[in-house]
Specification:
- The chain is of the alpha/beta class and 690 residues long.
- The chain is built from 23 helices and 14 strands.
- The strands form three sheets. A six-stranded mixed beta sheet has the order 6-8-9-10-7-11, with helices on both faces.
- Strand 2 (86-91) and strand 3 (95-100) form a beta hairpin.
- The radius of gyration is 43 Å and the shape is elongated.
- It starts with 10 loop residues before the first helix and ends in a 25-residue tail after the last helix.
């Protein structure tokens, strides 16, 4: 974020509106747009003064209520005066008041006091005073009441409460609403976040792995920079660009890069920000957002997760035309249709559910372009790793290409997390650089979770896990069409007791039958090996069974890889108008599908069973090595399968060597100081001939 220049002329700020105000399309000082919005803290001093005044007024009211006198008639007042029950008699222009002592009118405590009051007319004051003089009753004349204190005591608290409500609530609501919207003015205001050129630090060079998508948005950048270039031949720039891709592929990053390259304001808002508890608020916010964008043109409006409001209308159990999301979608459609050819406003939207969007939203004239932002291939992953590796200190021996090969189906966000986790791990270990082993550990941590090296495991479970993973590793090495083995470990990681990692040689955009069959055989090896070793079954093969079943069903239902069912798609369609998908086949076909799934899984199981039976000695060698070393690389696995020994220290030997190093590094305890006269020769002794 750029900092303001300390030498900037201060007088210019008072004579003209702020630059940010003009870029936001609002007036200086208007809440929610240009200028600093008014807040409660800005009126803090006034608020405390009002609260103090209210407290004083309440105290006066309570004191006045305690000193209030009971109304009595003149005859009752006169009788009490005759009996000498009154004192502090005061005569004013409108009343006579006095204090009563003793138990009067049934008061239980003789020491309690009360006040009595007689209302008199102004013309009767002289008669009352004459009668009091005749009775010999002493009294004092009170000066005439001032009207102002009486009014303040009576109406002051009410005025203070009204002022508090105005300053703390109504004005705050009006300021948040940015205009004369009243108390509900803020609900119809857009909740967008705006970035100017000072904040847009992301450029296209920071986006990697999606070259085709970058080429698509380059035209948008050129239009925003030079619109007359396109108007010369009568062309019209796309009004909307829809980015579709998996989570973490860089859709939002690409939109920010477009704003940074074009050097224009960037209005960002999420689809869920339009939806509020009041019906019609979403549509109001859409209109307000587009109004401010047109005032700030040229600019970019970015609607993140647009599927929150852009789903197909009339589907499911919506309440019809009065549904809040449908009103918001209709407002977006109308606003995008209202763009003129001269309006330099580009609407960009991102979603990972492009199949659920309304067709009226994706038609030409609204979102003219749909840009696919796919998961990066091996070349794209290498570019992304290089971009993020610029921010950390890497060892010269780091091979990012090897890491890119070992991260198939990883998104850009996953790759960034790998670099960050590796940097954190290297820092915690006190290293000066990030090394290859830190990247490998970070990759496994991001995909499978942190290694639980301190987890206490019983020996029989370790043996079971070792043979299970060896049952995966041996078929993966021997099968021709399976992915190459990377490493195998029995260290618990996340929810898994062990893992066998592969290192694909290439990215697959489609799946061949031979590769799928070999992958299914490899998945069956864990159950077969552990059952042959222990003679028992365990739940450790649950993930393998799920993988084999899913692959077999895809082969039959979608990919036409069954001779009995033929070249037919049996996968139920994804219809948003129904809660339960209807299967497009009958009961007999469903029975055949189940039989084919079972047949493919059984064939893979039997083939892998024969393979492990023929190579059981290799499985045993790898399992025993796993019990000693816990982790084996692909080269070490191939050595063991050739009958060679590894010749490296075991885990227990490494722990003992580490403890010995600590003991050797510990300095010995200091010896006690010796007596200086202890070894001295006796007096008169001759020196030794030596």
């Amino acid at each position: 974020m750029s900092q303001p220049d300390p030498n900037e002329d201060k007088h210019d700020k008072s004579d003209k509106p702020d630059q940010n105000d003009r870029e936001k399309g609002g007036k200086p000082g208007r809440g929610g747009q240009g200028g600093k919005p008014s807040t409660l803290m800005g009126r803090g001093a006034l608020g405390w003064v009002l609260l103090a005044g209210l407290a004083v007024a309440l105290v006066l009211m309570m004191s006045n209520a305690r000193n209030a006198a009971d109304e009595v008639t003149w005859s009752e007042f006169r009788e009490m005066a005759k009996q000498n029950q009154l004192e502090e008699i005061k005569v004013s222009e409108s009343a006579i008041t006095a204090t009563v002592k003793g138990q009067v009118d049934g008061e239980p405590d003789g020491s309690s006091t009360s006040r009595k009051r007689v209302a008199i007319l102004r013309e009767q004051i002289g008669l009352v005073t004459v009668e009091l003089d005749e009775l010999g009753i002493k009294y004092t004349n009170e000066p005439s009441n001032n009207l102002l204190p009486t009014l303040l005591i009576t109406f002051g608290p009410v005025l203070l409460i009204a002022l508090l409500i105005y300053f703390f609530f109504i004005r705050a609501m009006r300021s948040a609403g940015g205009g004369p919207g009243g108390m509900l003015g803020s609900f119809g205001r857009s909740k967008h976040r705006m970035m100017n050129k000072e904040h847009s630090t992301i450029m296209l060079s920071d986006v990697a792995g999606i070259e085709e998508a970058k080429d698509e948005v380059t035209e948008i950048i050129e239009f925003l920079k030079n619109p007359k270039k396109f108007q010369r031949l009568g062309g019209r720039v796309p009004r909307g660009v829809l980015l579709i891709g998996e989570p973490g592929c860089g859709k939002t990053l690409l939109a920010k890069a477009v704003a940074g390259e074009a050097d224009v304001p960037f209005f960002s808002i999420s689809g869920s920000d339009f939806v509020e508890m009041f019906v019609g608020v979403g549509a109001s916010r859409v209109r307000d957002l587009f109004k401010q964008a047109k005032e700030s043109a040229p600019c970019i409006i970015f609607l993140d997760e647009i599927d929150a409001v852009g789903r197909k209308r009339g589907s499911g159990f919506n309440s019809g035309g009065h549904d809040e999301r449908e009103q918001t979608l209709n407002a977006i459609l109308v606003e995008m249709d209202g763009f003129e050819s001269s309006d330099q406003v580009i609407v960009m939207a991102a979603t990972n559910r492009g199949d659920v969007l309304d067709k009226a939203l994706t038609r030409p004239g609204r979102f003219d372009r749909s840009i696919q932002v796919p998961l990066p291939d091996i070349k794209g992953r290498l570019q992304i790793l290089n971009v993020h590796a610029r921010k950390v200190k890497m060892s010269p021996a780091v091979d990012l290409e090897r890491l890119a090969r070992g991260t198939p189906m990883f998104s850009g966000a996953d790759l960034e997390a790998i670099i960050n986790e590796a940097a954190i791990s290297a820092t915690m270990l006190g290293k000066d650089f990030v090394e290859q082993e830190d990247l490998e550990e970070a990759r496994d941590k991001v995909r499978f979770g942190r290694a639980r090296k301190s987890h206490k495991i019983e020996e029989d479970e370790r043996v079971l896990t070792a043979y299970h993973e060896a049952g995966h590793a041996v078929p993966q090495v021997l099968l021709e069409h399976a992915d190459p083995l990377h490493k195998v470990t029995i260290i618990p990681r996340g929810p898994f007791g062990g893992a066998t990692f592969s290192l694909p040689e290439k990215d697959r955009h489609g799946y061949g039958l031979k590769w799928m069959l070999d992958t299914m055989k490899m998945a069956c090896g864990g159950r077969i090996a552990e059952m042959k070793k222990t003679g028992d079954l365990s739940s450790g093969a649950a993930q393998d069974i799920r993988q084999v079943t899913a692959m077999a069903r895809h082969m039959i239902l979608e990919w036409g890889m069954s001779e009995k069912l033929g070249f037919v798609n049996y996968q139920p369609g994804d219809d948003p108008n129904t809660l339960v998908a209807e299967r497009p086949y009958g009961t007999e076909t469903a029975r055949v599908i189940d039989e084919e799934v079972r047949r493919i899984a059984d064939e893979a199981y039997r083939d892998c069973e024969r393979l492990i039976e023929d190579n059981w000695d290799k499985v045993t060698a790898i399992a025993e090595a796993l019990l000693k070393y816990e982790t084996l690389t692909s080269d070490e696995v191939e050595k063991l399968m050739r009958g060679e020994s590894l010749g490296k220290p075991t885990v227990s030997e490494l722990i003992e060597a580490e403890q010995e190093k600590k003991v050797a590094a510990t300095p010995p305890p200091p010896r006690p100081a010796a007596d200086p006269d202890e070894d001295a020769p006796p007096a008169g002794a001759m020196p030794s001939p030596a």
